Protein: Leucine-rich repeat-containing protein 4-like
Organism: Sinocyclocheilus rhinocerous
Amino acid sequence: ELQHGPFWKAALLCVLFLMVQVCVEVAAMAGPQGCPTDCSCNNQLSKVVCTRRGLTRVPPGIPSNTRHLNLMENAIKSVQADSFRNLHHLEVLQLGRNAIRQIEVGAFSGLTNLNTLELFDNRLTVVPSGAFEYLSKLRELWLRNNPIESIPSYAFNRVPSLMRLDLGELRKLEYISDGAFEGLVNLKYLNLGMCNIRGEMPNLTPLVGLEELEISENLFPEIKPGSFGGLSSLKKLWIMNSQIGLIERNAFDDLASLVELNLAHNNLSSLPHELFTPLKYLVELHLHHNPWNCGCDSLWLARWLREYIPTNSTCCGRCHSPAHMRGCQLVELDRGDTGEMQCSAPFIADAPRDLNISAERVAELRCRTAAMSAVRWLLPNGTVLTHASSHPRITVLSDGTLNFSNVLAGDTGMYTCMVSNAAGNSNASAYLNVSAAELNTSNLSYFTTVTVEVLSPRSEMTKPKTTTTTAGASTTTTASPSVFQPVFISTPTVLLQSTDTPPSRPSVVPGSKVTTGKPPNPASTSLDEVMKTTKIIIGCFVAVTLLAAIMLIVFYKLRKRHQQRSTVAAARTVEIIPVEEELPPPASAANIAGQGALTLPEIRDHNSIYKLDYNTHNSDYSYKPKLEYSTHKPNEDFKKQITYKKKKI
Ligand SMILES: *[C@@H]1O[C@H](CO)[C@@H](O)[C@H](O)[C@H]1NC(C)=O
Ligand SMILES: *[C@@H]1O[C@H](CO)[C@@H](O)[C@H](O)[C@H]1NC(C)=O
Ligand SMILES: *[C@@H]1O[C@H](CO)[C@@H](O)[C@H](O)[C@H]1NC(C)=O
Ligand SMILES: *[C@@H]1O[C@H](CO)[C@@H](O)[C@H](O)[C@H]1NC(C)=O
Ligand SMILES: *[C@@H]1O[C@H](CO)[C@@H](O)[C@H](O)[C@H]1NC(C)=O
Ligand SMILES: *[C@@H]1O[C@H](CO)[C@@H](O)[C@H](O)[C@H]1NC(C)=O
Ligand SMILES: *[C@@H]1O[C@H](CO)[C@@H](O)[C@H](O)[C@H]1NC(C)=O
Ligand SMILES: *[C@@H]1O[C@H](CO)[C@@H](O)[C@H](O)[C@H]1NC(C)=O
Ligand SMILES: *[C@@H]1O[C@H](CO)[C@@H](O)[C@H](O)[C@H]1NC(C)=O
């Protein structure tokens, strides 16, 4: 007992010491209340803030009940898979203003409750589509100001829950796929401003729920009808400062819900008559800083503005020409002191002419007139077509011409071109007479007699030609006969070959020798021989295959043994090679300094996007008109505006 006493005491002390040490270690690792050492935590708000700590990676030990994690303004270069694995309650993740180049697939796995992901002001060159996999509740994604070069098809297909997508300032962007926005059926807000888009509007048709589109500061010399196809829910559209010189007739016909349109800071001198007629809810229109021509072409616009735009005219443009009108308000045109305007109804310079034509040809009925007048075509059956109509065969071209890609006999009738401007309207009509295609009997007879029996098993292409003579002949008349001649000559020989050795449908071909199981006697003897030889061949083949398989197995085993040895050697060599990592530019943290750390609510506001941008880039991006954008007040209450004025058309 005497001997045992001190021993037990020592053991107890030892255990106690170990326990204390473990406790101290755990406390040191997790910091007070389980907060990472580089961060400050607010347990009540479940918020963890680790801004401007020079972090180069996501710090470990973030409490699992965190709802809001701010890692902005650090030097994180890459986000590894499972970086946030246990943060199932995280709702807001702020990774803006880092140096992120790479986001691994699975980087955000586990973030099943994330609704906002901020990645703006980083160095991503691709959309990290693979990392979006499990973000089933994501509503806001911020990718603004990254050197992304292309947006491929289905880039956001994994996050159909997305409602706000900010792709602004992707200045290196070269390509947007037609399927880029596929799947974003819930998207309400999209920013594509300053994205280096040139010429064509990207395909936005998948965005059926889109309500706000910011696409300013790109380059769109012309806006064509169909540019906004599918955007029937769009309420606000900003296309400022994009050098728009021409908006074609009916270009906005798809935007039936539009409430606010901003065309300021462009190169517009006039707009086509009735451009805004389909926009029954439009109440806010910004036209300032355009070189408006206050002639007859703009008369309708002035009247329309007075009638439908309730705000004070400050929103709107001033005249640039003619010289005596320069500086006048566009909206004051033709009112009182500016004097009476002498305008006349549109003159149709190139009127449509009667046309006799045979079916299945290209045809056109011209209707060239002043560029800013409205043009509509009245078809014989009462249908009206415009430049924006999407008919499979008949289109109204930008110059007013009615173009038939393929006239049919049923198109016969009177066509009326109706042109209108502020002063009146003019009509011009023409009769289109489509006759059935001419027959060429000499070649048709050859065609029918020679090929009928031979062609019969071959179906599709040739069958209709043989049964109905008119259909067969019509195709020959559309092209010169010399083009078709070699085809006719060659068909019989091709078909004779096909009857001898039928590759695809052996049972249909009549008189073929090798058919099925019960042939007549003379064929059976030769068939037996054939069977014998095939059996021998198959036997040989099986033997050879078996041999090859055995050889393969042996070879594989040998190779595996060899590999085991060589990998050990390879591992050693890898250790020897010195790994040189690219050092981060030390300026990255210094560039960022200067603003408050927690500016999230500010960025959400559309207007302050510009302010923020102006602040952060004031050294390299000072741009005068930008200041003026802050005058557009965001008006969230659409319903109020809609009920303000409903137009009757
Ligand atoms: C603006 O349009 C005029 C013609 O209307 C053209 O001469 C000029 O080059 C255009 N300016 C820009 C910046 O596109
Ligand atoms: C437009 O503004 C002027 C002065 O800025 C003001 O006198 C006038 O009442 C305003 N008109 C409307 C319709 O708001
Ligand atoms: C079309 O055909 C009719 C009848 O053959 C003829 O009277 C008419 O002049 C033709 N029209 C044109 C434009 O060739
Ligand atoms: C009128 O004619 C056009 C052209 O042939 C056709 O596409 C359209 O369906 C017709 N409309 C009606 C109501 O029949
Ligand atoms: C008229 O339509 C046809 C067929 O779509 C097309 O080939 C032709 O270029 C069009 N004409 C004009 C002037 O665009
Ligand atoms: C042109 O046609 C339209 C529709 O048929 C008609 O309302 C209008 O009065 C016509 N205008 C002229 C000048 O014939
Ligand atoms: C239409 O064209 C056919 C054939 O060219 C002609 O026989 C017919 O008289 C024409 N009809 C009219 C109304 O011009
Ligand atoms: C019909 O065939 C004859 C003889 O080959 C040819 O001279 C004539 O041009 C053809 N007609 C048409 C409309 O192709
Ligand atoms: C069409 O007919 C002409 C004259 O009848 C003949 O010379 C020509 O070879 C024929 N075309 C074909 C493809 O047989």
Observations:
- Confidence is low (pLDDT under 50) at residues 26-32, 446-520, 567-649.
- Residues 362, 397, 403, 405 surround 2-acetamido-2-deoxy-beta-D-glucopyranose (ligand 5) (CB under 6 Å).
- Residues 499 and 509 are 7 Å apart (CA to CA).
